[in-house]
Amino acid sequence: MVWGNLTSGEKHFEEEYVLSRAYVPEHIVSLMTIVSKAEPFLIRDCLCYAKNNWVIVIGYPLKGEFSLATFKVLLREVILKFEPEYVWMAAPEIPEEYEKSSDDTEHDEYYRLEVNGFTVKERLMREVNKASQKLTVEKTNNFTKEHKIIINEFIKREKLSPRIKELYLSMPGYVAQSKTGMLLNVRDSKGLLSAFYIIELAAREFVTYVVGCHSKKNYVPHASDLLFYEMVRVAQERRKSYINLGLGVNEGIRRFKEKWGGTPFLKYRFCEYHSGQKIGSGLIKSIESIL
Q1: CA-to-CA distance for 228 and 8, rounded, in angstroms?
Q2: Which structural domains are found in the chain, ordered by start?
Q3: pTM for the structure as a whole
Q4: Collapsing DSSP states into helix, strand and coil, what is residue 47?
Q5: What is the pLDDT of residues 252-279, one digit of tens each?
């Protein structure tokens, strides 16, 4: 079902259906459409997003278990229907014929933290308390110049994949347009922004950690721990079952998530497939041109 062909009431019904069964961030239609500027549609109970000459295929079915055979059929149907030049696919497993022909693949895992019955370890709580003596937490949806400065600083010092980099750069537009996104800020005694998280609340069962980073110029030890603790509190207040912490990304981020009790729960495989002649840098270029 293509969203663009539906009435506003039908769109709401379809999105509610997706959000009630969502378990990965890519199932959150508002997040994906704001970031990618693409049109969402459902085929074989999987979400896809299409624009211009490319399609994003999310191979995590909303009902039932993942099947590689079914995913292959889904990919063929998408390619026949939209005739895209580029297909960007994410799933627990990628068909070998697509992965072999791709120059851009990624293997990772989604992490999650169970909220029900969660208790903070004594050592972590000490770190949170230390940070809370120097920092003030605020919840907002106001993305400012301070946030942009910290993001640019973060991008310069970290080795990020092109997709993660573009995700960070898309955050000003996302926060401005999203009705379900939330900024968690921590500010020092001078009111300067030390660190922030952006989280997404739309899914029925979970809070999504979207991005987060801290300032080296206004650095306060354990600011990220304080933000993580506040994210857990938000999830509990909203009666969510768990927090989807996103991908492992790198060893440092994985260690931080595991320190707080996050565990890998679902395989993530990414592949960019060129159905036609390879031109430029593929889908990343297409996304950059519309951000």
Answers
A1: 36
A2: 3-107+269-290 (3.40.630), 112-266 (3.40.630.30)
A3: 0.89
A4: strand
A5: 899 999 999 999 999 999 999 998 744 4
